[in-house]
Each structure stands twice: as C-alpha cells, then as structure tokens.
Amino acid sequence: MNGIAWIQMFLALILVTSALPKLTGLTAFKKTLKRLGVTDKLVMLAIGIPLLELAAAVLILVSPLRFAGEVAILALLGCFLWATYKGMTGKAPVECSCFGSLTSETFGWTTLARIAVMLALDLILVFIPDAAGLADASLAETLLYFTLSISALLFYILYQTIQTYLNLLVKK
Questions:
Q1: Is 91 exposed, middle or buried (0-12, 13-18, 19+ CB in 10 A)?
Q2: What are the two backbone dihedrals, phi and then psi, of residue 46, each rounded to the nearest 5 degrees?
Q3: How far apart are CA 3 and CA 79, in angstroms?
Q4: How far is it, in rounded angstroms, from Cα 108 to Cα 127?
Q5: H/E element holding 30?
Q6: pLDDT digit string (tens) for 74-113?
Q7: Fewer CB within 10 Å: C terminus or N terminus of the chain?
Q8: Cα(16)–Cα(22) distance, rounded to whole angstroms?
Q9: Distance CA 122, CA 127 (A)
C-alpha cells in the first residue's frame, strides 16, 4: 500500500466534501463568517474559501502541481485555525459550517483535532516530496485509496450525526 497516495486521496476528498456544501449553502457559510467577526467586505469574498478548497483538492492529485496544492492546504488550515480560535473564544458558540449542512457542530476541540490531523497529513506530503503518489498508483490501488477515504469520511459523518442525536436526547 502506498501511504502517500492514500494521503493525497484522503485530503482531496475531505476538501471536496468541505467545499461543495459551502458552495451550495453559501448564505449559511457567510452567516458563520459574520458571527466570527469577519468584516462585510471580506464576507463578500466568502466564495473564495470553497473555491480554494476545490483547487487544492485538484492540485494535490496532480503530480507536478502537488506542492502548490500542499501549500494551498496549509493556507486553508491557517484560516481554519483562526476561525476555530475565534469560534472558541467568542461569547456564544458558533456553528462551524466546516462541512456545510452535512454535519452540525460548533467550533471546538473536535474541530482542532480535525485540523491537526489534516496538518499532520499535509506536512507528511510536504516533507516527503519525492515519494511515489497517485501518479504511480495503478487503477486498482487508486480505487482502493478512494474507497478507504470515502469510508473514513462516512464514518466521521456518522459519528458526528450520532453525537448530535445523543446531545438532543440529553437536552430533552
């Protein structure tokens, strides 16, 4: 198994899964940015975040452009860390909108853990630039990495959904 190829696929799928709901629910994403204290002028540029996520997802999969994708992911993670800090230190909890309407969570330690995992995976790619990646994987391997990545992502979404449901039960 090629770990670098799996990391490429996993990060790309996370970014696409994060970007598409933001694009389809741009109004909710803009509300989140406003609650974080982002100025109205910058909120108008909110579409840039999911577009950068999509661009990074594509770049990280293309061998000659992989480093550009890795740098874009680092920039995105910096934005996400800032948003998490603002969300955790504000007066009221702020809905994350990390995955649009796919999950419902507020900024918190889970968000930080997710960012830390993405950062660790991206840094592996940055510091092992010459390792074989998806460009060297067979079609069967690529499909395996895709399936493993989708499975991990679905497991996380299911976990979040169950946790939200349990929280609702406790509140009743």
A1: exposed
A2: -55, -30
A3: 26
A4: 28
A5: helix 26-35
A6: 999 999 999 899 888 888 888 877 776 666 677 888 889 9
A7: C
A8: 10
A9: 9
What gap in Å lies between CA 135 and CA 113, rounded to an integer?
29
Which residue is it, tokens 């490429």? Answer: 8
Classify each residue of 115-124 as buried b or exposed e, where b means 16 or more C-beta atoms within 10 Å of its C-beta: beebbebbee
172 CB-contact burial (10 Å; exposed 0-12 / middle 13-18 / buried 19+):
exposed
What six digits make up the tokens of 60?
């990280």
Band of residue 163 on the pLDDT scale cut at 50, 70, 90: confident
Give just the sign of the alpha carbon dihedral 171, 82, 80, 109: negative
Q: Rounded to 5 degrees, what angle do the CA atoms 58, 34, 90 make?
A: 105
Which region holds residue 105: left if phi is over 0, alpha if psi is between -120 and 50, else beta? beta
> 95 has which bridge partners?
106
- Per the listing, tokens 């740098």 go with 71
Which candidate, 18, 5, 1, places its Cα nearest to that of 156?
A: 18
pTM attached to this predicted model: 0.85
Greatest alpha-carbon span in the chain? 54
